[in-house]
Design a protein that fits this description.
A: 8-stranded mixed beta sheet; 3-stranded antiparallel beta sheet; B: alpha/beta; Pyruvate-ferredoxin Oxidoreductase, domain 3; Rossmann fold; 4 domains; 20 helices; 36% helix
C-alpha cells in the first residue's frame, strides 16, 4: 500500500462475470451504488474483501473485482470475523439477505455486532425468500400468504434495526434501493466506522414480493413516509417539513409541527451512548405503510474486536517475549534420563 | 525428614505398581495423582496415567456419581498403558470404595479413610452394612487409616479452622503413599509452595498433612513393608510429563512456527476438548489468536475465514460439536483451503458420555459431510504422539490445501506419559509459499490468476491471500470451473472436480505402515488411535507366553498407507480392536475385501491389555 490515494474507476470494480439477478431486481441498484462508491473511498481492490452467505444477495461478491468468498447460509458474519481477526488490515464487507442474516445466521449477526468486529454488514431486506422461490422470511409481515404459508404466516417479524440496536451494534443505518446517493452515503459511513457497522437496505424483490416497500420508497410516497435522520437536526419530514417526531411517554411519535412547535421536536443524536432513543426511532414504524426513518440511527465509538485481540498478542509478547518452542516444551518441568 | 531412617521394615523391590486414588470430586484426587506422577517421573520411572472424573462439576457429595479417580502406573520397565487393574486403591470415602473395589486386583491393597465411613456416607454410597466389617474386604489387604482425624490434628497447630483442615487430607494420603513407595519429600514441598503461592495458611496445612501422612506410614506399624521401584531403562534424554490435549496444543503452536504462519483457533467450549482452547489461549506470544465463538458452527466458519486470510487455522471439538462443523468442513473441502479440525472423540450418540472415550467418529470423519467431501484423517496413538499428529495434520492441510481431521479421544486427552523431548531442529519444515503472481493468460495475452489451476504434483490449488496485488478472485461453495474457479453447473466439469478432489486426497504422501511384534506371525492385530498402547502390551504378553503375534498400527486413516493391503494380506488372521462397533473393520473390508475380525468395546473405558490378549488368544484358537 502506498500513501497516495488509490485512483480507480467504477468499472475497475466490476468482474467479467455476468450478473445473474432477475431483471428489475433491486440488487442491481445496490451493486451500482457500491461500484460507484469504491473509487470515492480511495481504497485498493486487493485489500477489499466481500464475504457472503447464501441467497440472492449473497451472489454479490462474484460481481466485485476484489477478494471474495461466497460462503454458507447464514455464516458470513462468522467467516468474516475469522478473517478480520487474522487480517485486521483488510476492508471487509459482509453481504446477506433477510433470510441469511436474520434467520439462519441471526446468531452470528448479533454476536459479530456485540463484539464490534470491524465489518461493514449490508442486510438486503426484501421481506421474502427469493432464491428458494417465495417463502415468508423472518421480516415478512404476519399473515403473509406464500407457498409455505397458504393461510398466512403466523410469525411476528423481526425489525432488523431494533435487533441490531439490541445486539449492542455501534453503527446502525438504514437506506433503500431507490436512492443511490443515500445508499452511497450510508455505505460510506459504514465503511468509515471502525467496528461493526450494519446497514439495512430496503430492497425490492420484483418476482416474489414486488412493491413491498413502495408504500414508503416510491417517489410520491417518500415525502410523507420517509423520515430522513440527520445528526444534530430536529427530526422533520413531509413535503414542507410539516411533520416531526417527538418522544412522549417513552416512545417516539409522529406529530404535526404546527401543533407542537419546532422546539418540541426530537433532535437526532446518533452519537448518544445510550441506544434507547435510537431504539424508539426504530419502533416508530410498524411496516412500510407509515412514516419510517432512514439514515444513521446510531454511530458510537467502541473498541474494535481485532484491535483488542492484536493488543493482547502484543502485550503477551511484551511480557513473555516471542514464543520459544524449546522453552514451551519444558514449561511444565523436565527430568533427565 | 528425608534423613529419617526407616523403621525396621523390609524394603521390597517391585517392578511396577498401579495405584488408583479415588475420592469425592471435591477431594483433590486429580491433584494428588498428578503430583505422585510428577515425583515418580523425576525418579526415572516409566509411567502412564488414567484420570477418571464425573461430567458434573460437583456431583452430590459422597455419592457414587461424584467419585473422581486417578490411576497411575509406575514401573522400572517401558510401558504403554496405565495398567488393566490397580494393585493399590486409596479410597477416601465409602462411595469411592464402592465404585472402585471391582477394579482392584484380588489380593490388592486398600488404604481407607475410616473417618469417612460413617452411617450417612455409607447410606449415600448404597452400603447396607459397613464394608469394613461385613467381609466385603476379604481377599484384599486393607489398611484402615483415620485420615481426616490425623489431618485435623496435624494442621491444628497452624490455626487452620477444623472445617478447612480436612481439605488437606488428600495431602495426607499423598504423604502416606509417598512413604510406601519411597518417594522423596522435597518435590512435593516445592509443589505445595508453588501451587498455593500467597496462601500461607493453605501451604502450612498441606505441608503438615503431607508430613503427617509420611510419618504415619513410618510409625504406625500398620504396614509390613515399603517398596522401591527402580528407574526404568528409558532412552536417555530430557523428559517431560504431558497429557494428550496439552501435547496437541503444543503441536499446533509448533506447527505455526514450522510453517512460519500465524495461528487462528476458532473454538466453542466442549468437554473434553476445551483444554486445547485453554492451552492455546495462553500462547498469544506465539502469535496464536484464539476465538471463543458463539457456537460450534461459527467456530469452524471463523477458522475457514482465517484460512482464507492466510492463517494456519484450527477448530477443536468433540461429540455433537463435530456434527455442527460438518457444513463448514464441506465448505473448506470445496474452497480447498487448509484447516485442521481436531475431534476429541467421546461417548455418544448425542450428549452421550462427555468424559469417556470412544473411537466412534471414524465414519463421521470419513463420510460425515453431505456429498463426496473427502478429508484426510490422522490419529495420534499416545498422549505424547498428539504433538506429532498435530504437526502432521498441519503438514497435510498446508501442502494439499485441504481440511484435515485429527481424531484424538477422551482417553488420550487426559492421560499422560513421559515424553522424550524432540530436538526442535529435527522437526519438519511444513511451510508453503503463498501465490503472488499470475498463473495464466487470457485471450488477449494478458496475465490472469486462475485460483483452481492445480499443482500437477499435489493437485493443490494456489493459495493467494487478500492483500496480494492483481490476484483478486472470488471463491465459494458453488461448484467451480476447474482452473478459473468461476461458477460452473456444467455436468462434465462437476464430474471432473469430484474426481480431482478425490484424487488429491488419495494421493497424499502418507508413510507406509510398519509391522511390529513378529513380522512372520500368522496372526496380526490392526489398530488405530489410542488402542496402540494396549495392543502393544498385549503383543508383549503373547510373546512371553510363546505365541507369535504381529501389530500393525495406523496413524493415517485417510488415505490409508499404500502398502497396507499387501501387509495385511500376508497374515492368516487379523483382528482389529476398536472402541466402536467395527468402523475401521468396515472400511478395510470394503476397500480391500479382507476378512479382518472386529473386536469391539463401547463401555466408555479403554481396552485393557488382558481384554486384547484374550481376544487374540480366542482368534488364534478359532483359526
Amino acid at each position: 500500500m502506498t500513501d497516495t490515494p488509490t485512483r480507480t474507476e467504477p468499472a475497475d470494480w466490476a468482474t467479467d462475470q455476468e450478473v445473474r439477478w432477475c431483471p428489475g431486481c433491486g440488487d442491481y441498484s445496490i451493486l451500482t451504488a457500491m461500484r460507484m462508491l469504491m473509487p470515492e473511498l480511495e481504497v485498493d481492490r486487493e485489500n477489499t474483501v466481500f464475504i457472503s452467505g447464501i441467497g440472492c444477495a449473497a451472489r454479490f461478491p462474484y460481481y466485485m473485482n476484489t477478494y471474495g468468498m461466497h460462503g454458507i447460509h447464514g455464516r458470513a458474519p462468522a467467516i468474516a470475523t475469522g478473517l478480520a481477526m487474522a487480517r485486521p488490515d483488510l476492508d471487509i464487507w459482509v453481504i446477506g439477505g433477510d433470510g441469511d442474516m436474520m434467520s439462519i445466521g441471526g446468531n452470528h449477526l448479533i454476536h459479530a455486532l456485540r463484539r464490534n468486529v470491524n465489518l461493514n454488514i449490508l442486510l438486503f431486506n426484501n421481506m421474502i425468500y427469493g432464491l428458494t422461490k417465495g417463502q415468508f422470511s423472518p421480516t415478512s409481515e404476519v399473515g403473509k400468504i406464500t407457498k409455505s404459508s397458504p393461510m398466512g404466516s403466523l410469525d411476528a417479524p423481526f425489525n432488523p434495526v431494533s435487533v441490531a440496536l439490541g445486539a449492542e451494534a455501534s453503527f446502525v443505518a438504514r437506506t433503500h434501493d431507490m436512492d443511490r446517493q443515500h445508499m452511497m452515503e450510508m455505505f460510506r459511513r459504514a465503511h468509515d466506522h471502525k467496528g461493526a457497522s450494519i446497514v439495512e437496505v430496503f430492497q425490492n424483490c420484483n418476482v416474489f414480493n414486488d412493491g413491498a416497500w413502495e408504500g414508503i420508497t416510491k417517489k410520491q410516497n417518500r415525502d410523507g413516509n420517509l423520515i430522513s435522520l440527520e445528526h444534530g437536526k430536529p427530526i422533520k419530514f413531509g413535503a414542507d417539513g410539516e411533520f416531526g417526531v417527538v418522544v412522549e411517554n417513552g416512545a417516539a411519535k409522529v406529530v404535526s409541527v404546527a401543533d407542537v412547535g419546532e422546539a418540541a421536536l426530537l433532535v437526532h443524536d446518533e452519537t448518544k451512548p445510550d441506544p434507547s432513543t435510537a431504539f424508539m426511532l426504530s419502533r416508530l414504524s410498524r411496516g412500510p405503510f407509515e412514516p419510517t426513518p432512514v439514515g444513521v440511527f446510531r454511530a458510537v465509538e467502541r473498541i474494535e474486536y481485532a484491535t483488542s485481540s492484536t493488543a493482547q498478542l502484543a502485550m503477551a509478547q511484551n511480557d513473555k517475549g516471542s514464543g520459544d518452542l524449546s522453552s514451551l516444551l519444558r514449561s511444565r518441568g523436565t527430568w533427565q534420563v | 525428614m528425608t534423613d529419617t531412617a526407616p523403621r525396621e521394615l523390609p524394603l521390597q523391590e517391585l517392578d511396577e505398581v498401579i495405584i488408583r486414588f479415588a475420592g469425592d470430586s471435591g477431594d483433590g484426587m486429580q491433584l494428588t495423582g498428578d503430583q505422585f506422577t510428577s515425583i515418580s517421573a523425576a525418579l526415572g520411572n516409566d509411567l502412564a496415567t488414567l484420570p477418571e472424573f464425573p461430567a458434573e462439576i460437583r456431583a452430590p457429595q459422597g455419592t457414587l456419581a461424584g467419585v473422581s479417580a486417578f490411576q497411575v502406573r509406575i514401573s522400572d520397565f517401558a510401558i504403554t498403558t496405565p495398567g488393566d487393574a490397580p494393585t493399590v486403591l486409596v479410597a477416601m470415602n465409602p462411595a469411592a470404595l464402592k465404585a472402585q473395589l471391582k477394579n482392584l486386583v484380588q489380593g490388592g491393597a486398600i488404604i481407607l479413610n475410616t473417618d469417612a465411613f460413617n452411617e450417612r456416607n455409607l447410606e449415600k454410597a448404597g452400603y447396607e452394612s459397613d464394608p469394613l466389617e461385613d467381609g466385603t474386604l476379604d481377599g484384599y489387604r486393607s489398611y484402615p487409616v483415620p485420615m481426616s482425624q490425623i489431618t485435623r490434628d496435624a494442621v491444628a497447630e497452624h490455626g487452620v479452622k477444623p472445617r478447612d483442615a480436612e481439605r488437606s487430607k488428600n495431602f495426607f494420603a499423598l504423604g502416606l503413599i509417598s512413604w510406601m513407595y519411597t518417594r522423596p519429600v522435597e518435590p512435593t514441598m516445592e509443589f505445595i509452595n508453588t501451587k498455593f503461592h500467597g496462601k500461607e495458611l493453605v501451604i502450612k496445612a498441606n505441608e503438615a498433612a503431607f508430613r503427617a501422612g509420611y510419618n504415619f506410614g513410618e510409625t504406625a506399624e500398620l504396614f509390613e513393608s515399603h517398596y522401591e521401584i527402580k528407574p526404568a531403562d528409558l532412552p536417555s534424554g530430557e523428559y517431560t510429563n504431558v497429557n494428550g490435549n496439552t501435547a496437541l496444543a503444543w503441536g499446533c503452536a509448533a506447527a505455526g512456527q514450522l510453517a512460519r504462519l500465524p495461528i487462528f483457533l476458532g473454538s466453542y467450549p466442549i468437554t473434553p476438548a476445551s483444554d486445547i482452547l485453554h492451552d492455546l489461549s495462553e500462547l498469544k506470544h506465539f502469535g496464536v489468536r484464539t476465538f471463543q465463538a458463539e457456537d460450534e458452527i461459527a467456530a469452524a466458519a471463523s477458522a475457514v475465514g482465517a484460512a482464507f486470510g492466510g492463517a494456519l487455522s484450527f477448530t477443536t471439538t468433540s461429540g455433537p460439536g463435530v456434527a455442527l462443523k460438518g457444513e463448514a468442513m464441506g465448505l473448506a473441502v470445496s474452497l480447498e483451503l487448509p484447516l485442521v479440525v481436531i475431534d476429541i472423540q467421546r461417548g455418544g450418540p448425542s450428549t452421550g458420555l462427555p468424559t469417556k472415550p470412544e473411537q466412534a467418529d471414524l465414519m463421521m470423519a470419513m463420510y460425515g459431510r453431505h456429498s463426496e467431501s473427502p478429508m484426510p484423517i490422522v490419529a495420534p496413538r499416545s498422549p505424547a504422539d498428539c504433538f506429532n499428529a498435530a504437526i502432521e495434520a498441519c503438514r497435510i492441510a498446508l501442502r494439499y490445501r485441504t481440511p484435515v481431521m485429527l481424531l484424538s479421544d477422551g482417553y488420550l486427552a487426559t492421560s499422560s506419559e513421559p515424553w522424550l523431548l524432540p530436538d526442535i531442529d529435527s522437526l519438519p519444515d511444513i511451510g508453503v509459499d503463498f501465490h503472488t503472481g499470475f498463473n495464466g493468460t487470457n485471450e488477449d495475452g494478458e496475465g490472469i490468476f486462475l485460483p483452481y489451476l492445480r499443482d500437477p504434483e499435489t493437485l493443490a490449488r494456489p493459495w493467494a491471500i487478500p492483500g496480494t496485488p492483481n490476484l483478486m478472485h472470488r471463491i465459494g461453495g458453488i461448484e467451480k470451473e476447474d482452473g478459473s474457479g468461476n461458477i460452473s453447473y456444467d455436468p462434465e466439469n462437476h464430474q471432473k472436480m469430484v474426481d480431482l478432489r478425490a484424487a488429491k486426497i488419495e494421493a497424499i504422501d502418507v508413510p507406509d505402515v510398519e509391522v511390529s511384534g513378529d513380522a512372520d506371525a500368522d496372526f496380526c492385530m490392526l489398530g488405530w488411535g489410542s488402542t496402540w498402547g494396549a495392543i502393544d502390551a498385549a503383543v508383549d504378553r503373547l510373546q512371553q507366553a510363546g505365541k507369535k503375534a504381529a501389530h500393525v498400527h495406523l496413524s493415517h486413516l485417510n488415505p490409508l498407507p499404500k502398502n497396507l493391503e499387501e501387509v495385511l494380506s500376508k497374515f492368516e488372521t487379523v483382528i482389529c480392536p476398536e472402541m466402536n462397533d467395527g468402523q475401521l473393520v468396515n472400511l478395510i473390508r470394503a476397500k480391500y475385501l479382507l476378512d479382518i475380525k472386529p473386536v469391539n468395546k463401547m463401555n466408555g473405558v479403554p481396552f485393557t491389555t488382558a481384554e486384547i490378549e484374550s481376544a487374540a488368544l480366542q482368534a488364534m484358537e478359532a483359526s
